[in-house]
Amino acid sequence: MKKIIFLTMITVFLTASCTQQKINLPSVKPEKAGMSSERLERINPVMQCYIDQNKLPGLITMVARQGKIVHFEKFGNMYPDSPMSPDAIFAIQSMTKPITSVAIMMLYEEGHFQLYDPVEKYIPEFKDLKVFSHKDKDGIHVVDQKKPMTILDLLTHTSGLGYGWGNTPVDSMYNSAKLREGSLKDMVQKLAEIPLYYQPGTRWNYSMSTDVLGYLVEVISGKPFDLFLQERIFVPLKMKDTDFYVPKEKINRVPYLYGPKDSTGIKVITIPDTSRTSKAKKYLNGGGGLFSTAKDYMIFCQMLLNKGEFNGVRILGRKTVEYMTENHLSDDQLPAEGFYEGAGWGLGFAVSQDVVKAQIIGSNGAYWWGGAYSTMFLIDPKEQLILILMTQFSPSEYYPTNVEFTALTYQALID
User: Fold this and answer.
1) Of 81, 288, 336, 403, whose CB is crowded by the most CB atoms within 10 A?
2) How far, in Å, CA of 355 to CA of 406, rounded?
């Protein structure tokens, strides 16, 4: 009981601190940051068209250059008869992954582990994991690992873990295990009973690796994952609307989740309610569980673009961010299909390697990712540029909003 009271007091204190301290990047005329006002305005009719054609319910686009906001627009509705709000709180899904990756790298900087350390050193349940070989009339066959899974493997999604999205015997085991019904420790214990898809270090496979990193943060720091994020990232950066749940008093700022309706139109998939959205979660999903706003996420992105610092608060060291934003995959590790052309992978996000192969204007070295509900961010160190798009529509990439928004932003650069 004392522990519960203590954690409640901490939460109240952190919430109050966030509320009292507001911070925004300054807004300037685009020309003062080397962008064209006239050209940036080309974004608006393209995004508005999705609303007018009833393809998307509503969205927000936000662009920063040289640490200043040059574009911040809202379109459509959050839900019927409620216009999109600039402070709308979105389920950012896999845009949670970069935040979790930053959290574990903060602990790396403090000397708690090395990236080449075996995961089993900190999570004993992962000792002697088996790797799927094949299935025949005698059942499922597994083999030993050729080398243990490392922490770097978790960061690069080369751990051999997966998501259970396919049709293999391992996918069936993932789906039967109900991995996210319980705590992070429960998830790890269940995962330990399932064979890996691939030998660790051999192949990029989008996975629950980042969920495991969230548990690793708990093990190493000795704190609940959500409390660590609040104390070490969200409160220092004043990301006042970012958490694994949305308080009841903010529930009206959460848009409905929509999806396609037949061949035309949209339909409501999920209506946020206090029984789920406003309830503190037991499973703290480091791979996709956070809610955030465009403004909050812009602060996080600006911190990364600034090489780990924002507004006098240093979250990571410069060399750490540089390391995270390098491509860590060899050609052999990239899957034959299911990955973005011209891209590699850093520690928590994709990294552009060849814009010619990608067939979209941009910069090599830009890093980016999106969420399952069609959100996205992009950070370009060469151009000192950040893009954020927020909406709530599933499945992601159903419409080419991300690539359109990216191209429309880059064409507005004039200096």
Assistant:
1) 288
2) 12
Backbone angles phi, psi at 369, to 5 degrees: -170, 175
Can you read off the two tokens belonging to residue 318? Answer: 């410069």
Q: Which residue has the tokens 């990236």?
A: 115
- What would the pLDDT profile of 79-120 be if each residue is shown by its tens digit? 999 999 999 999 999 999 999 999 999 999 999 999 999 999
| Number of separate helices (H) and strands (E) present in the chain | 14, 16
Q: Please give the radius of gyration of the chain, using alpha carbons only, rounded to the nearest integer.
A: 21
The residue with tokens 């301290």 is: 21
What global pTM score does this model have? 0.93
Kindly list the distances between the CA atom of residue 333 and the CA atoms of 156, 304, 328, 345, in Å, as whole numbers in the listed order. Answer: 10, 26, 9, 10
Q: Which amino acid is at 62?
A: M
Structure tokens at 47: 């995004």
Cβ neighbours, 10 Å, residue 276:
12
What is the CATH T-level fold of the domain 26-106+223-410, as seen in this structure?
A: Beta-lactamase (3.40.710)
**Residue 144, token pair as written in the block:** 């030993």
